[in-house]
Amino acid sequence: MSEFSRLGRGSGVPGDGIDKPIKKGKPGRPKGKYSDANPDCKRITAFIQKETHRNVKVKLAETDRYLSDVLEELLSEWVNK
């Protein structure tokens, strides 16, 4: 048996966590009301100026809000005028 044959099999020590399966999915993706899992939502892509993007990120951090919530609010107001 090669010295490398155990690679990928874990250490053999129970409870070391190495033998746990790797979680698959999209890390960092939201799981809330605005997510791919919600059939009432649709993902969009848009281009905005870099300075606007930077300012939006700062404002979101200051107000502890999510971009999806702000966009939903602004776009709903705009289409209902």
Structural class: mainly alpha
Backbone shape: elongated
Q: What is the straight-line distance between the termini? A: 73 Å
Radius of gyration: 22 Å
Strand content range: under 5%
Name the quaternary structure.
single chain
Count the beta strands. Answer: 0
Mean pLDDT: 79
Number of alpha- plus pi-helical segments: 2
Query: How many strands, what sense, and barrel or not for the largest sheet?
Result: none
Low-confidence stretches: none
Task: Give the helices and strands as they follow along the chain.
Answer: HH
- Helix content range: 25-40%
Give an account of the 3D structure.
The longest helix is centred in the C-terminal third of the chain and has 14 residues, at 50-63. The protein is an all-alpha fold and 81 residues long. Helix content is 33%, strand content 0%. The chain contains 2 helices and no strands. The mean pLDDT is 79.
